[in-house]
Amino acid sequence: MVTAIAGDDRTSPWIALHETLRVAAHRNVICCPGSPVIDHESQFSSRVSRAVPEMSRALGDVRLRFPSAVQENQLLRAFRRFLDNAPPQTEHEPPFSDVSDDKPHDWLPFVQISSLIHVSPAELASRRESKESLRENVSEIFKRYVSEGLTTDEIRIREARGVGSALFRVGPLWAFLHIARKRFDESTAWDATKRFLMSDYAAMIPAADITSRMYAAVAAAFSAGSQRLPKSSDADDIQQIGTYLPYVDVLVVDRFFAHVSSAMARDLDAYQGTIRGLGEKQIPEFIDWLNGLVNQADHAPLSARIYEEVGQHGSFRKFTDRIGLSHS
Predict the structure, then answer these.
(1) What residues form DSSP beta bridges with 277?
(2) Angle in degrees, CA 46, 231, 41, rounded to 5
């Protein structure tokens, strides 16, 4: 979409999609949350490093948290269940506050002021180095799963268990210990935290449940002779799906992950979000769906009129006075 806009290719279906998204967002019918994962990824390219965050902010005023913060919120809630001796469970409808302090159902502000902070060259180089090493690690993970002949259930269980054990190794654990110390002495608090992170409670949080299923499904695709080789970005894609799927209505992914997700739709149906692939051939249908949402929204014409009036006259108060609305 950014490439099409930058090239001013008016025939591109991506420009038509961008305009439809923009209209729907400014009619206050949809919200397009900004993903910090995509913002970070865009910074590796000087061509789109500014354009991607700017476009994201123009389509919505909701900023999502980093996956690690969302995962911690899910784990802390599960930790309280663990301490209360309540049975472990997977939350299929976790609260939106896990993922953002912003309100997705609030109307867009009439004037948006934001700043884009660029990372230093040294930090960017460090991220690039980490990304390159991740490419090798991701490939090795999938190759090992295939060579070991693990079943999808065995892979899923291993990946789900890995969420808690990884956190125990690298931390931070202070939030868990803060809760545990209110009930136990120091030694017992550490023991309770360790037992929790190695338990089903941690393995059953939404992020662990979805990402482990995605890793198992991707490994199954490779073992079945997929011509597509593992990519370094696969880990980011799986992390985004695993983190944000329970909190959104539609999550758009590339064709490979759309295909993988369709094969495991039954396992993901319990969550709120629907995973959709979106190539150029699917754009017209997606645009029709978005236009249908706008046409069905009773408030969309009023929203359009307000934004038009404010844009022309610069005063929401003048507009409400003109149509006899109270602005209290």
Answers:
(1) 253
(2) 30
Q: How many CB atoms lie within 10 A of CB 87?
A: 9
Q: Helix, strand or coil for residue 253?
A: strand
Q: Which residues of 207-244 are buried (b: 16+ CB within 10 A; e: fewer)?
A: bbbbbbbbbbbbbbbbbeeeeeebebebbbbbbbbbbb
CA distance 158 to 164: 11
What are the per-10-residue average pLDDT scores of the chain (328 residues)?
80 91 92 83 70 77 91 97 95 95 84 58 67 66 79 89 90 93 95 96 96 88 70 81 94 88 83 90 94 95 81 59 57
275 contacts: CB under 8 Å, gap ≥ 6? 241, 245, 251, 253, 257, 258, 261, 262, 268
Give 168-189 pLDDT, tens digit per residue: 888 889 999 999 999 999 999 9
How many residues does the structure list for the chain?
Answer: 328
pLDDT tens for 113-162 read 555 566 667 766 666 666 666 666 777 777 788 778 888 888 899 999 99
305/308 Cα distance (integer angstroms): 5
Q: What does the block give as tokens for 105?
A: 């159902």
Spell out a b/e string for 17-29, using b for 16 or more CB atoms within 10 Å of the CB, else e: bbebbebbbbbbb
Which of 295, 271, 291, 158 shows the shortest CA–CA distance to 215?
158
Contact criterion met (CB below 8 Å) for 183 and 171: no
Q: Whose CA is closest to 253, among 217, 222, 302?
A: 217
Question: Which are the contacts of 83, defined by CB distance < 8 A and separation ≥ 6?
Answer: 179, 180, 183, 192, 196
Structure tokens that stand for 315 in this block:
């005063």
User: Tens digit of pLDDT for each residue in 84-101?
Assistant: 999 999 999 999 999 999
Positive or negative, the CA dihedral 175, 37, 102, 92 is negative
Run of H or E including 69: helix 67-83
